[in-house]
């Protein structure tokens, strides 16, 4: 018997149909000697610390770090029935096919089940890579089964990521929560390898906005009259000029006013004319992150909405695998081009015209087998879409994917750029222009919102001039501008920051190292990390902008820079990629992690924490008080945070504050006596 184990039921059904099976049973499909069963994503989960040793029920900092000597897994409570079915089938099978999704998590979640059952290294295991659920794609994948051992690097990368996340999350959450208690913080301080540096990005941006003070800066704009027309230019400041800020902006108004007076009404000469023909290649098809960013800007969709909707389109067999980090296409899919373009030509709107204008013989740089690993860019399948059956969001995203695919069959946009230098009264003025010679692929996007500055540049046409020709100043004016605070992150721009993390590291020497890094998190998890930060009330959405809550600001203040900046996390992702490519071993990776977690713990435990202003203090010793809930009676009490427990002050809670002056207790005879404020909790 040959057993296929799919990542989820929808994939199992597609494979079963590809094998010719219609016999669906409780936990599998049967087709002669082939059986197809499924998981529900990860059906195994890692042990909690206290499952390794009961002593870890205590969050005592002295017990850290917790690093299992032998990692252990358990079956998820809600997946026991399906796991039993998979296990029984795997033990009977002669050959097993890993049909996880074509990425590192998909590789791991099936391999870890086979390893848990004990058959991974004892039976022949093959790998099928299904990038789309349509019948043609499934049949092609079934004809191209691979040896599962080819993907050991991919599995090890996911395994290392999972265990590294566990080590950081379990140890740092415990350490930071207990350390924060000393300053009176009573809630859990949740720490994650990706979650925390992502939160750090938003918090630091918010602090920049809060600390921002607007400053005026100045430019000089001059209009020159030439026989062939007007030339609008800007004063070119000397490189060694003083009075500039760090961004090269002029802050001295008097200097700018002097330039205006100096050239007003003067003659000038064309000092240099440069013209260059250039071209803009069509953008690559979408990876998941690229689609999430683009759809966020165009429609305001959240990254999670885009992922969920692409999953729906994938299960409708209309588009390929959604969790792709690749934006290239394999050349073997060129055979599908006629069918896909014919299908797109039947869509509503301008698609018929766009398909007619496509050159099917063109081969853009997207067709590159060397860039393909387990999956490829998100593109339409050969299944024809009925747009009337799609929701608005599904339709919008399908059309975005379709246009990006169509762009591969359009020529580059061609343009002519012109740069003119004018000298007058010893000062240099520069004018730039750009003329579109042929729109090329950009005809697909005419009428859609684009970069406004780019639009202005594309419409700026300069007159034909030659070196040495004379011009006369028609107008010179002072332009006053005001510096603007940095913009808050949106879900889309935060996702882009997570992917292009090199620009946000604290150690700038890492930027070139991380230039080709895939960012922090993965295509499949970044949206979930942002959603998690909102669910935990660390971030809130205000007019589509992500704003950190007071709790988030407090957490980043509590934690050491080593965990709130993305430097090490980004390097980890680079190492995980090296593991995937078999350029680094899991053992070498974890030898680094042991050193790193100890460093993180030391940084966190010894960091000085400023107690919040609104946390009440103990009237006996002056230390912060902490709100707790009694396990005995469920009531809330405030206790002293004296680490030595020498001060045993405890107070009842009254509307979220300690009751320092409780009402005197009533005696049996009806009178009231004195009662000490220091009462025992339930």
The first-to-last residue Cα distance is 63 Å
What is the CATH top level name of the largest domain? Mainly Alpha
Shape: flat
| Biggest β-sheet description | 7 strands, mixed
Q: CATH homologous superfamily of the largest domain, by name? A: Topoisomerase I, domain 2
- Please tell me the CATH architecture of the largest domain by its name: Orthogonal Bundle
Q: Outline the low-pLDDT stretches.
A: 671-682
Number of separate structural domains: 5
Number of helices: 20
- What is the CA-based Rg, rounded? 32 Å
The total of beta strands comes to 21
Structural class label? alpha+beta
Strand order in the sheet with the most strands: 2-3-4-1-7-8-9
CATH topology of the largest domain: Topoisomerase I, domain 2
What would the average pLDDT be, to the nearest integer?
A: 89
Structure characterization notes:
This protein is an alpha+beta fold and 682 residues long. It has five domains: 2-144, Rossmann fold; 161-211 and 496-606, Topoisomerase I, domain 2 (Orthogonal Bundle); 216-277 and 413-482, Distorted Sandwich (Topoisomerase I, domain 3), CATH 2.70.20.10; 288-409, Orthogonal Bundle (Topoisomerase I, domain 4), CATH 1.10.290.10; 616-682, no CATH class. The chain is built from 20 helices and 21 strands. A hairpin with a 2-residue loop joins strand 3 and strand 4 (34-38). The longest helix has 30 residues, at 152-181. The protein starts with a strand and ends in a 24-residue tail after the last strand.
């Amino acid at each position: 018997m040959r057993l296929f184990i799919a990542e989820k039921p929808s994939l199992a059904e597609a494979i079963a149909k590809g094998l010719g099976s219609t016999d669906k049973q409780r936990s599998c499909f049967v087709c002669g000697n082939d059986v197809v069963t499924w998981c529900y994503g990860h059906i195994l989960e890692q042990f909690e610390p206290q499952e390794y040793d009961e002593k870890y029920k205590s969050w005592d900092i002295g017990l850290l770090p917790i690093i299992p000597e032998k990692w252990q897994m358990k079956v998820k409570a809600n997946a026991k029935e399906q796991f039993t079915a998979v296990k029984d089938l795997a033990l009977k099978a002669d050959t097993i096919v890993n049909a996880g999704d074509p990425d590192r998590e998909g590789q791991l979640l099936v391999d870890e089940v086979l390893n848990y059952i004990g058959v991974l290294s004892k039976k022949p295991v093959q790998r099928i890579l299904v990038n789309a659920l349509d019948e043609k794609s499934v049949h092609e994948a079934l004809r191209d089964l691979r040896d599962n051992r080819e993907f050991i690097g991919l599995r090890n990368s996911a395994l290392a990521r999972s265990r590294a996340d566990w080590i950081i999350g379990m140890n740092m959450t415990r350490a930071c929560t207990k350390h924060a208690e000393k300053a009176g913080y009573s809630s859990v301080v949740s720490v994650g390898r990706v979650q925390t540096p992502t939160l750090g990005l938003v918090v630091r941006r918010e602090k920049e906005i809060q600390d921002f003070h607007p400053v005026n800066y100045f430019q000089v704009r001059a209009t020159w009259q030439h026989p062939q027309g007007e030339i609008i230019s800007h004063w070119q400041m000397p490189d060694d000029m003083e009075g500039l800020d760090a961004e090269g902006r002029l802050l001295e108004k008097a200097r700018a006013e002097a330039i205006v007076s100096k050239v007003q009404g003067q003659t000038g000469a064309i000092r240099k004319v440069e013209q260059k023909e250039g071209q803009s290649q069509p953008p690559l098809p979408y990876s998941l992150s690229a689609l999430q960013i683009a759809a966020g800007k165009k429609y305001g969709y959240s990254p999670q909405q885009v992922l969920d909707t692409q999953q729906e389109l994938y299960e409708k067999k209309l588009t390929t695998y959604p969790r792709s980090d690749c934006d290239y296409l394999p050349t073997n899919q060129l055979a599908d081009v006629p069918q896909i373009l014919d299908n797109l030509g039947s869509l509503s709107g301008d698609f018929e015209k766009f398909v007619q204008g496509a050159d099917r013989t063109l081969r853009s740089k997207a067709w590159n087998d060397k860039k393909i690993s387990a999956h490829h860019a998100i593109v339409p399948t050969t299944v024809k879409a009925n747009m009337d059956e799609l929701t608005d969001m599904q339709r919008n995203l399908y059309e975005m994917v379709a246009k990006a695919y169509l762009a591969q069959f359009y020529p580059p946009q061609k343009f002519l750029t012109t740069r003119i230098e004018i000298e007058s009264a010893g000062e240099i003025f520069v004018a730039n222009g750009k003329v579109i010679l042929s729109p090329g692929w950009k005809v697909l996007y005419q009428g859609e919102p684009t970069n406004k500055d780019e639009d202005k540049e594309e419409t700026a046409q300069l007159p034909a001039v030659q070196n040495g020709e004379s011009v006369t100043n028609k107008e010179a004016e002072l332009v006053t501008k005001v510096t603007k605070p940095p913009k808050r992150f949106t879900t889309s721009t935060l996702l882009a920051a997570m992917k292009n993390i090199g620009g946000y590291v604290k150690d700038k020497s890492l930027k070139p190292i991380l230039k080709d890094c895939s960012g922090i998190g993965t295509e499949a998890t970044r949206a979930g990390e942002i959603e998690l930060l909102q669910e935990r009330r660390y971030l809130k959405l205000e007019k589509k902008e992500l704003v950190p809550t007071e709790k988030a600001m407090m957490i980043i203040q509590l934690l050491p820079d080593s965990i709130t900046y993305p430097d090490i996390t980004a390097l980890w992702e680079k190492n995980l990629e090296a593991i995937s490519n078999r350029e680094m071993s899991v053992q070498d990776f974890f030898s680094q992690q042991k050193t790193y977690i100890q460093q993180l713990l030391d940084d966190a435990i010894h960091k000085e924490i400023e107690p919040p202003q609104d946390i009440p203090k103990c009237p006996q010793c002056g230390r912060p008080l902490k709100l707790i809930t009694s396990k005995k009676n469920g009531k809330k009490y405030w206790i002293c945070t004296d680490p030595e427990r020498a001060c045993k002050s405890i107070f009842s809670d009254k509307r979220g504050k300690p009751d320092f002056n409780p009402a005197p207790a009533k005696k049996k005879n009806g009178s009231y006596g004195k009662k000490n404020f220091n009462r025992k909790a339930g």
